[in-house]
Amino acid sequence: MKEHIANLEEKARQLRISIVRALHSSQSGHTGGSLSAIDMVTALYFYKMRHNPAEPSWEGRDRFVLSKGHAAPALYAALSEAGYFPKEDMMMLRRLGSHLQGHPDSKATPGVDVCTGSLGQGLSMANGMALGLKLDGRDNRVYALLGDGELQEGQVWEAAMAAAHYKLDNLCAMVDANNLQIDGDVAKVMNVAPITDKFSAFGWHVLDIDGHDLEAIVNALDAAETVKGKPTVIVARTVKGKGVSFFENKASYHGVPPSDEELPRALECLGEQCNL
């Protein structure tokens, strides 16, 4: 198990490098939230989820909804690493005509299950997928990744209520709780705490973990799969910009890519040399 976790940690490091390089190439996009979410995305795509890069629409696949769609670079890095499209496509992030748009597009990008980007809507779509799979008698699971600032949207809580009502135990939500959003501290913009108590009150099974501890993430995903009769939410305590010291815990890097001067420093933080 330790070797497997170490492999996931190395995978996450490589994906962070891919994200930083892609954002620098595009000179556009969301740095902080992509880096905070990548450990969870890594665990999903390289440990937990059933999926097939050779057949993106395979009916037996688990579904993933990136509700915080602005963190698309994290999803694209995982998809490219998994083999859904060539890794060099990452350098076309947000370019005119590229299939890697600023937010996920299921009609353009192999492996993307649903278009997202308007915050607050992803959990509702995940509900629909989970309920549909249950009605069809399938054992596929649905995973949805939300931001903590996104929890300020009322639709999230309508969806949370519905998921518990319909006993969607094939649904696992994950909250990237990095405490920052584009306008600053989540607690100051519109406090969403206590997140765990709120989901529990809505009838969810709640797990509270360190969102950068791959072993904790893996164990939480395994535990979620055993829960019956209710949906599970994993509240992952993360650091915005994780992995690059001068990005960390700074709301100013919510939607700012690395500059030419910052790229070598960022890659050095990630244990990589810069080859422009």
UniProtKB/TrEMBL annotation:
The keyword Transferase applies. GO terms for molecular function: transketolase activity. It comes from the Bacteria. Keywords: Thiamine pyrophosphate, Transferase. It is an enzyme of class 2 (transferase). Its cofactor is thiamine diphosphate. Its EC number is 2.2.1.1. Residues 12-271 form the Transketolase N-terminal domain. Belongs to the transketolase family. This is Transketolase subunit A. It comes from Geotalea uraniireducens (strain Rf4).
